[in-house]
């Protein structure tokens, strides 16, 4: 299970909408399974069908995470027109062991769908996304 605050979830959905028609991408960091920070990164491919993280931005985000005592929990990206499932390309490019892969689908723009996957023996296993309410 991955735990994401409503505020961070809203931010990654907003990022996905802002980058349309291209895929948005970024990193999620936190402690154990609870996301405490999101990092919007540039999709250097500028494509609606795939993404590549900007390596300089990725390095800076990981450096900032470590300084804050956080660990990288997930890579997120959007699917502007397709369901929130791992494509064959997503699986092929899932290089980082032990993290989640969060996908935001905007196939129905009025009802974004967010799913999280772990890779086990080369196959995607969907995990629960627990959304925390905003703190007052």
Protein model, in words:
The chain has 136 residues and is α/β, with parallel strands linked by helices. The chain has one domain: Cytidine Deaminase, domain 2 (3-Layer(aba) Sandwich). It is built from three helices and eight strands. The strands form two sheets. A six-stranded mixed β-sheet has the order 3-2-4-5-6-7, sandwiched between helices. The protein has a two-stranded parallel ribbon with strand order 1-8. Strand 4, helix 3 and strand 5 form a beta-alpha-beta unit. The two termini are 24 Å apart.
Output the number of helix runs.
Answer: 3
Order of helices and strands: EHEEHEHEEEE
- Could you give the order of strands across the largest sheet? 3-2-4-5-6-7
Average pLDDT level: 93
Quick one: CATH superfamily?
Cytidine Deaminase, domain 2
| Estimated structural class | alpha/beta
Beta strands, count:
8
Largest sheet, in brief, is:
6 strands, mixed
β content, as a range?
Answer: 35-45%
Q: What ranges have pLDDT less than 50 throughout 5 or more consecutive residues?
A: none
For this structure, the CATH topology is Cytidine Deaminase, domain 2
The span between the termini is 24 Å
Q: How big is the Rg? A: 14 Å
What topology does this entry show?
Layout (H helix, E strand, L loop, with lengths): L1 E4 H14 L5 E7 L2 E8 L13 H13 L3 E9 L8 H5 L7 E6 L7 E8 L2 E5 L1 E4 L4
Parallel strand pairs: 1-8, 4-5
Antiparallel strand pairs: 2-3, 2-4, 5-6, 6-7
List keywords for this structure.
3 helices, Cytidine Deaminase, domain 2, 136 residues, six-stranded mixed β-sheet, alpha/beta, single chain, two-stranded parallel sheet
């Amino acid at each position: 299970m991955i735990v994401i605050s409503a505020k961070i979830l809203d931010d990654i959905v907003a990022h996905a909408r802002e980058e349309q028609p291209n895929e948005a991408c970024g990193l999620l960091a936190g402690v154990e399974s609870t996301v405490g920070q999101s990092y919007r990164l540039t999709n250097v491919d500028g494509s609606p069908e795939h993404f590549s993280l900007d390596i300089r931005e990725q390095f800076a985000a990981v450096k900032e995470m470590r300084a804050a005592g956080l660990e990288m929990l997930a890579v997120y990206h959007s699917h502007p027109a397709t369901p929130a499932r791992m494509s064959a390309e997503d699986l092929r490019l899932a290089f980082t062991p032990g993290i989640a892969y969060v996908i935001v689908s905007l196939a129905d723009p009025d009802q974004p769908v967010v799913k999280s996957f772990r890779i086990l023996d080369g196959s995607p296993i969907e995990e629960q996304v627990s959304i925390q309410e905003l703190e007052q």
